[in-house]
Design brief:
Blueprint (H helix, E strand, L loop, with lengths): L1 E2 L3 E5 L6 E6 L3 E6 L4 E6 L13 E5 L8 H20 L11 H15 L8 E10 L1 E8 L3 E5 L3 E6 L3 E8 L5 E14 L2 E11 L3 E2 L5 E2 L4 H10 L8 E2 L1 E2 H13 L3 E2 L18 E5 L2 E7 L3 E5 L4 E4 L3 E7 L7 E8 L3 E8 L3 H10 L4 E2 L2 H36 L1 H40 L1
Parallel strand pairs: 11-18, 23-26
Antiparallel strand pairs: 1-2, 2-3, 4-5, 4-10, 5-6, 7-8, 7-13, 8-9, 9-10, 11-12, 12-13, 14-17, 15-16, 19-20, 20-21, 21-22, 23-24, 24-25
């Protein structure tokens, strides 16, 4: 490969021609995977007016790969620095070997970060703690896009790709979640992420003596504020860091920021109100936020469900002896199950669903109605059985009248036989008595 101002050309082995070029202004993400692989993801803007476009290229760079031009100079420079370090330290670590893939990765990242032809970054946000994807990244904010930089990753995200943002309090009362919803997900490895979840400590602030400064002119500040509504930024800002970052993104992207709803968890206390429900999904613990127009599970995996997409919410394990219950939010396309909700949250969840006109199934009221209906069916069956028995008796009595005559005849015969036997017994007793009397005489 050979490095140009606005692209990287990949030439044939005999250097007779260029096989293809990478336009750096369209590179969305650069990341290394292992020691010999470099992945380059494009924004797809080059294919808007075409049926087909390149979205990703992966390079396998072996240890003995030959690099030329500026790449070779960088590789030699790193090797010299490594050799000098080895001379100072007698112990050499094989893991610190400089691979050609690392040179290619660093060069692509640095060239993309320069963003040929663009202005200098107006703000830098260093070492932000991201929960999804799990990483610590630096954010460079430009006028129309932002660059996310990690140790082995680099992403470019246009502000036009931001759908909406959220600023939600964590249940611990110490942190705030700032969530950026993306129209086009970024990838960490092979896992796509539609939401960037950034965690801030509420206590961290920028003091007035050392404010957060923007690298822009007053005219540029006025132009940005003119596009935004409801919030203004200044060249120097102080206060909680999460508020400063939220203001910046609202002004730069023009997207709205959604805050917590009025829902109150059973875990709320007098001095702190908790706006979410502790639960788990896909064997991962987190918090489910019932918002005014949606449900949002944070921090990872993020699950965002609009109320208008919900067909029903199914409850399970709502018995009196259960400590926890489950809910399944069913949409037209999928079903999202959330487990281990505290049973004290049950009434609050049911009330919230009723206030949003969302259909609920499997509630305690449904179970009681089903049990009452089952008991009513049993009583009805018993009464029907009693009625059927009476009919059978009547029909049997009518059909069995000739049989009753036969029974009377049999009873008459039995009574006649019994009478004869009684007469015979009396006669025998009389004869015995006469014989006895004669003997005594």
């Amino acid at each position: 490969p050979s490095l140009r101002d606005d692209r990287i050309d990949f030439n044939s082995h005999d250097e007779t021609g260029t096989i293809f070029s990478l336009p750096l202004e369209q590179v969305k993400q650069v990341q290394g995977s292992g020691r010999h692989e470099v992945s380059v993801v494009f924004s797809g803007e080059q294919g808007k007016e075409k049926e087909n476009c390149v979205t990703e290229i992966r390079f396998h760079v072996p240890s003995d790969a030959s690099l030329t031009g500026q790449f070779e100079a960088k590789l030699n420079k790193k090797k010299d620095a490594e050799k000098k370090s080895d001379d100072d330290d007698s112990s050499s670590d094989e893991d610190t070997k400089i691979e050609p893939s690392m040179i290619l990765l660093d060069t692509l990242k640095s060239k993309c970060d320069e963003d040929v032809g663009a202005h200098t970054a107006m703000a830098h946000l260093d070492d932000l703690n991201l929960l999804a994807p799990k990483a610590r990244l630096d954010f460079d904010l430009y006028d129309s896009y932002m660059r996310l930089r990690g140790r082995k990753q680099s992403w470019r995200v246009n502000y036009s790709e931001i759908n909406q943002m959220f600023l939600l309090p964590a249940p611990d009362g110490v942190h705030r979640f700032f969530v950026i919803a993306l129209a086009n997900p970024i990838k960490q490895g092979q896992t796509p992420y539609n939401h960037l979840v950034i965690s801030f400590e509420e206590a961290v602030q920028m003091e007035a003596a050392n404010p957060f400064k923007l690298n822009v002119t007053e005219e540029e500040i006025d132009a940005l504020n003119a596009k935004a509504s409801g919030v203004k930024i200044t060249k120097e800002m102080d206060g909680p860091v999460f508020e400063i970052v939220a203001k910046l993104f609202k002004v730069l992207s023009g997207s709205k920021i959604i805050g917590p709803s009025k829902f109150e968890s059973c875990r709320s206390k007098e001095n702190s109100t908790i706006r979410c429900i502790s639960c788990s999904t896909k064997q991962t613990s987190g918090n489910l936020y019932p918002l005014e127009k949606s449900f949002f599970f944070l921090p990872k995996p993020t699950v965002y469900i609009r109320n208008e997409e919900i067909t029903k919410v199914k409850f399970s394990n709502v018995g009196m002896l259960e400590r926890y219950f489950n809910i399944t939010i069913v949409t037209k396309e999928a079903a999202h199950e959330f487990q281990s909700l505290d049973k004290r949250e049950y009434e609050k969840v049911v009330t919230w669903l009723q206030s949003k006109d969302i259909k609920a199934e499997g509630t305690k009221a449904d179970i009681m109605r089903q049990q009452a209906a089952a008991l009513a069916d049993e009583d009805s069956d018993e009464s029907d059985e009693d009625f059927d028995d009476d009919d059978d008796d009547d029909s049997d009595s009518d059909a069995a009248m000739p049989d009753d005559d036969d029974d009377d005849e049999e009873e008459a015969e039995d009574s006649g036989k019994k009478g004869k036997k009684d007469k015979k017994d009396k006669k025998e007793k009389k004869d015995k008595k006469e014989k006895k009397d004669k003997k005594e005489k």
